[in-house]
């Protein structure tokens, strides 16, 4: 197995799907083997592609509020790993951003997962990440999130924190009342355990 630095350099230099990326190659992720929490998302959006900082947008603000953590904690790679299913911005289609490129996860994801040393919680955003990490297949998002206890406390499926999901959040008040308090408590527990161990 290559050293961590060599492995991360290889990922950042990846050009496997360059021909399919209209805005160019820019892998965006955050990783350290000691991180106890993984945020498994879809793919970077346009703003994140421009900044190179994961969740540096309105979605990130909402996600940090859901987790109950500040920016310093969120961007500490020894606490929070951020690995989208596709590391590069795939561009936009008729209804929003395109799905993550299919080349990315087979090339890199297993190698990342094998490097975690103390992973305790995987926060899973979006259908591609849910299928990979939870084996949910084509099940509807609402059904998957409603059944969150099936994966608890090792993993938690969430709707994407994008403002595009405001309507879903209004239609599903149980999410804020039932899921988010449990999520905040679990994040606090995991991060406290890391600090004291």
TrEMBL record:
Residues 28-184 form the Uracil-DNA glycosylase-like domain. InterPro entries: HI_0220.2 (IPR047124), Uracil-DNA_glycosylase-like (IPR005122), Uracil-DNA_glycosylase-like_sf (IPR036895). Pfam families: UDG. PANTHER family: URACIL-DNA GLYCOSYLASE SUPERFAMILY PROTEIN. This is Uracil-DNA glycosylase family protein. It comes from Denitromonas halophila.
């Amino acid at each position: 197995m290559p050293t961590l630095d060599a492995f991360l350099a290889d990922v950042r230099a990846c050009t496997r799907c360059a021909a399919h990326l209209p805005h160019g190659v820019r892998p965006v992720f955050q990783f350290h083997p000691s991180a106890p929490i993984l945020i498994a998302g879809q793919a970077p959006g346009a703003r994140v592609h421009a900044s190179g900082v994961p969740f540096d947008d309105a979605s990130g603000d909402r996600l940090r509020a859901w987790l109950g953590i500040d920016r310093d904690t969120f961007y500490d790679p020894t606490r929070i790993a951020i690995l989208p299913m596709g590391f590069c911005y795939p561009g936009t289609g008729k209804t929003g951003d395109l799905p993550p490129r299919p080349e990315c996860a087979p090339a890199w994801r297993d190698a990342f997962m094998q490097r975690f040393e103390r992973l305790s919680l995987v926060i899973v955003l979006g259908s591609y990440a849910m299928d990979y990490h939870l084996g949910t297949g084509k099940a509807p998002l609402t059904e998957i999130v409603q059944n969150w206890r099936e994966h608890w406390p090792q993993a938690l499926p969430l709707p994407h924190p994008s403002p595009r999901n405001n309507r879903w959040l209004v239609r599903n008040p149980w999410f804020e009342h039932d899921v988010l308090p449990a999520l905040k408590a679990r994040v606090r527990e995991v991060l406290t355990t890391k600090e004291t161990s």
